[in-house]
Amino acid sequence: MIKKVLIANRGEIAVRIIRACRNMGIFSVAIYSKEDENSLHAQLADQRVCIGEGPAKDSYLNMDRIISAALNVDADAIHPGFGFLSENSSFARKCRENELIFIGPDPDVIDRMGNKSQARQTMMNAGVPVVPGTKEPVYDVEKGKMLAEEIGYPIMIKASSGGGGKGMRVAANEEEFEFQFNMAQRESANAFGDDTMYLERFIGNPRHVEIQIMADAHGNVVALGERDCSVQRNHQKLIEESPSPAIDEGTRQKMNEYAVLAAKTVGYTNAGTIEYIVSPGGEFYFMEMNTRIQVEHGVTEMVTGTDLIIEQIRVAMGEALSFSQEDIRLRGHAIECRINAEVPGHNFMPSPGVVQNIHLPAGNGVRVDTALYAGYRIPAEYDSMIAKVIVHAPDRPAAIRKMLGALDEMVITGVDTNLDFQFQIMRSKIFREGKADTGFIEKFMNLKQPVPDVPEI
């Protein structure tokens, strides 16, 4: 049994995990940096431990300090949340070595699926559809040119250890390839300490659709439907929804089946996400697996009636899943908008500072995950996401209307946010018709012009 969980994270996901622990009667321990001394997660937890200065490398990324904190407070387990150390196999192994339960998958599985080229090869061997591309890692630009010619241009150049759009470039032809390959490889080496690359055929105007899975140690793997994450900027998601308006029931069924196959192939346990790229013609291909809980997990919770954080903890205790595949039915429609402290009109420049006033929307089918409160100072050291507004309604048009009402009601003063920007996306004809692909923001949102330039409802 897990009686005490240390949460190796901060902000809204730490608050979310604390609440799940409270619902299970589990004692929660928050870690915090000196920068986060007055943060909500540090105030809500049953116990708190300061682990270092503000920069993440001195606090939320410092494995030894986190492990020491867990041992000093007699924690049974560590929940990594998302980001920071959540997909770090070395951290997962350190937890195991110190007899701490890591609430996530086995470290060997993290290694296997965290390396993009290795994950791609594993999925190809399992029969999961992947984008045409290289089967082995690529280190040399000349070898890359030869392989690119075989695959066919345009080519997507990707870092094997990549994430968040880093180490990712597109070459339209052979003349561009050398420059783009070298740039992507340099980015990868600087960001991840790894210059391993792989190549894929570039698919233009795609949709980004992912399948949430949960798996236990008893061989049960359940797919909980899809989330459409196509509205994004620089490969960073802005809006997620379920079900996807871009796929039909037959495609949904196949994507779920392949997601379960992928998880079973690698012996996966706990929460994970199989991410697909969907072509304009409706073909879908495995892109990568996220071996953690996702930012957008609340969307799936709303349409399936599950609590994925509680399920994560139960699975980590060795219990079987509390639901079967037959229990999962997508009911209604859910949409999430990520609210960031940033200035959309100035290239989304971060906007840290003190929150002077705040009003959060509420009502039937409205959920806000946040760690904000009046007087809280949003630090500059961390990610700019400060809240997630999630709505649930009987169908997609009703969900869009509910989101418009929630965003209109939400008030945050003292810092700039993307609230108005998200509001205008909800109003746009392209989004309302369910036609927004991954290039939607760049193509249709003219940030330098007044808001009314966005197509009206």
How does this structure look, described?
The structure is a single chain. The protein is α+β, with helices and mostly antiparallel strands and 457 residues long. The protein folds into 3 domains: 4-103, 3-Layer(aba) Sandwich (Rossmann fold); 132-201, 2-Layer Sandwich (Dna Ligase, domain 1); 207-453, ATP-grasp fold, B domain (D-amino Acid Aminotransferase, Chain A, domain 1). The protein is built from 15 helices and 22 strands. The protein has helices at 11-24, 40-44, 63-72, 89-97, 107-114, 116-126, 141-151, 174-192, 249-265, 297-304, 308-316, 396-409, 419-427, 429-432, 440-444, and strands at 4-7, 27-33, 47-52, 77-79, 101-102, 155-163, 166-171, 197-201, 207-215, 221-233, 236-242, 270-278, 284-290, 333-340, 342-343, 349-350, 353-354, 357-359, 366-370, 377-378, 385-393, 411-413. It has an 8-stranded antiparallel β-sheet, sandwiched between helices. A 5-stranded parallel β-sheet has the order 3-2-1-4-5. A hairpin with a 2-residue loop joins strand 10 and strand 11. Helix 7 crosses helix 8. It is globular and about 60 Å long. Residues 447-457 have low confidence and may be disordered.
